[in-house]
Request: fold
Amino acid sequence: MQPTLTNLTTAPPLWLAIAFALTTAVTLWGFVRAVRVGTPRLTTAVFLGLLSWLALLGLLASQDFFTKLDVFPPRLVVAVLPNLLLILALFVTKGGRRFVDALPLSTLTYLNMVRIPVELVLYGLAVHRQIPELMTFDGRNFDILAGLTAPLIAYFTLGRPVLSMRWLLVWHSAALLLLVNIVTLAVLSAPSPFQQLAFDQPNVAVLKFPFIWLPGFIVPIVLLGHLIAIRRLSTTTSRPF
Reply:
């Protein structure tokens, strides 16, 4: 079945683009803040590296690089694969593990609050037929729950420790599953040889500027935070901040 690509070249509303760009900026600020607390000497390098990556993705998307669908593998791989390789490197190298182990779990947990505006933007994109409804909280995406509960679990386990660290581990594991769910829906809904869902309204927004920053930056940052938390909470009985 061939997807309907009527809206592939239609620009989403400007206000949605601005809202998402601001959400991306908050995500960048939150992660850099975590780095500044954990490894201050790397703050500038990480900030400039991430800013350069965002600029590159934005430039490519503004030139319609990702909307060229007659190539294999899909060009969206360019936005996703480097992040996955970097995350892998952080966990398999000694220096990488030293870096992630220094990041404060409180900041990484609170950072999940960005999932609230992300989900609101996704809903707006669905209204304007840039993504399928199944990718919103009206469909099969429950990721907003992670954003709503992030400040509560962070406060009651790390801020005012009423709950044990086991609750924080359970929360990060559940929130990771929610992330995997929406990523799976997004991949299976995107126009590519792997598309299995939403042929009447495929996921075309993430191929455009600035929404390419969702798979290319925000999702990897959130994923990294969960993996760091699960690794550290699973291997230590001390109270990690």
About this structure: Residues 14-38 form the longest helix (25 residues). Residues 14-235 form one domain. The mean pLDDT is 95. DSSP finds nine helices and no strands in the chain.
